[in-house]
Specification:
5 helices, globular
């Protein structure tokens, strides 16, 4: 198994392997981003497409972005989609941590459903997003 950052020219080659599943994940979280938004970000170099591949091909995709927060540089995970997470997650966490350090990030940020705490048990909750519907 190997993990690599796809260059912008490779994004189109790999995107069809997970685009539909990525959109389903975006829809389930009810967030403000779509698979198309993430595709544009990766193609333009505004986010990184990190791929997990094995001999059979695609295993997982992680969409990562460096962001400047008020007092620090962070590595933010915009999306993860893949199969058999237990198999590749430890290696991916090490890869992303090194990538973050290399880019000057001092922390890793992810938002989403409660499941993140199972993936990153040492994570500290920073904020929660609330939605209030406006009635006519």
């Amino acid at each position: 198994m190997r993990i690599a950052i796809a260059n912008a020219a490779e994004v189109d080659q790999f995107w069809p392997a997970f685009a539909q599943r990525l959109q389903i994940a975006c829809d389930e979280t009810g967030g403000d981003i779509s698979s198309g938004d993430l595709w544009q970000m990766c193609r333009s170099g505004n986010a990184f497409l990190v791929l997990v591949l094995d001999d059979a091909g695609f295993k997982a995709a992680l969409i990562m972005q460096f962001q400047k927060w008020t007092a620090k540089q962070v590595m933010r995970c915009l999306a993860i989609v893949g199969d058999d997470m237990a198999e590749w997650l430890p290696m991916a966490r090490d890869f992303i941590a090194q990538m973050a350090r290399d880019g000057g990030a001092t922390s890793f940020i992810a938002e989403g459903r409660e499941g993140w705490t199972r993936i990153f048990p040492a994570a500290r909750r920073l904020r929660t997003t609330y939605e209030v519907e406006i009635t006519p």
